[in-house]
C-alpha cells in the first residue's frame, strides 16, 4: 500500500476518456486509453458520462491495491477518434474507495439475512 503522505498528495486523478455511440446496440461506450481494461457502457450519453468517474475511481483503487503502476494521463492532441466520438476529461478520487472495508462486519450479514427472512415471511402471509 501507499504511504499516508502519498494519499494526501495524490487524492484526485484526471484521465481522458473517449465516449462513443455503438452503432449496433445504440449504447455509449466509455474507454480510458491510458488504462487498459477500464471501459464500460451506458444506455445513453448522460449515463455513460455520469458513471465514468466512479468507474475510473474503482479501477484506480484496484490497480493500487494490486500494486500496479498508475500511469500519468496522456496528451490527447494526437489521438485519432471517430467522427461521432468525443474526448472528455474525467476526475476521480481514490479516498472514497479506500474507506470501503474488504469484508463487511458480521452484524451486516445478520441484518441482511433478517431482512430477507422478513420479506419472505410477509410475502407468504
Describe the protein in words.
With 125 residues, this protein is α+β, with helices and mostly antiparallel strands. The chain has helices spanning 4-9, 45-65, 95-98, 106-124; strands at 12-21, 28-31, 39-42, 86-93. Strands 3-2-1-4 form a four-stranded antiparallel β-sheet. The termini are far apart. 14% of the residues are buried. Mean pLDDT is 76; it is low at 104-125.
Keyword list:
globular, alpha+beta
Give a quick precis of the structure.
The chain is of the alpha+beta class and 125 residues long.
Topology (elements, then pairings):
Layout: H1 4-9, E1 12-21, E2 28-31, E3 39-42, H2 45-65, E4 86-93, H3 95-98, H4 106-124
Antiparallel strand pairs: 1-2, 1-4, 2-3
Shape category? globular
Number of strands: 4
Q: Report Rg.
A: 19 Å
Report the structural category: alpha+beta
How do the strands line up in the largest sheet?
3-2-1-4
The first-to-last residue Cα distance is 51 Å
Quick check: average pLDDT?
A: 76
Amino acid at each position: 500500500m501507499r504511504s499516508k503522505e502519498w494519499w494526501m498528495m495524490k487524492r484526485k486523478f484526471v484521465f481522458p476518456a473517449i465516449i462513443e455511440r455503438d452503432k449496433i446496440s445504440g449504447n455509449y461506450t466509455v474507454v480510458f486509453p491510458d488504462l487498459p481494461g477500464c471501459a464500460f457502457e451506458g444506455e445513453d450519453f448522460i449515463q455513460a458520462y455520469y458513471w465514468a468517474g466512479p468507474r475510473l475511481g474503482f479501477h484506480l483503487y484496484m490497480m493500487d491495491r494490486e500494486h500496479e503502476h498508475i500511469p500519468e494521463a496522456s496528451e490527447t492532441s494526437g489521438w485519432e477518434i471517430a467522427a461521432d466520438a468525443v474526448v472528455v476529461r474525467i476526475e476521480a478520487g481514490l479516498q472514497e474507495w479506500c474507506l470501503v472495508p474488504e469484508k463487511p462486519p458480521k452484524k451486516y450479514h445478520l441484518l441482511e439475512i433478517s431482512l430477507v427472512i422478513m420479506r419472505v415471511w410477509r410475502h407468504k402471509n
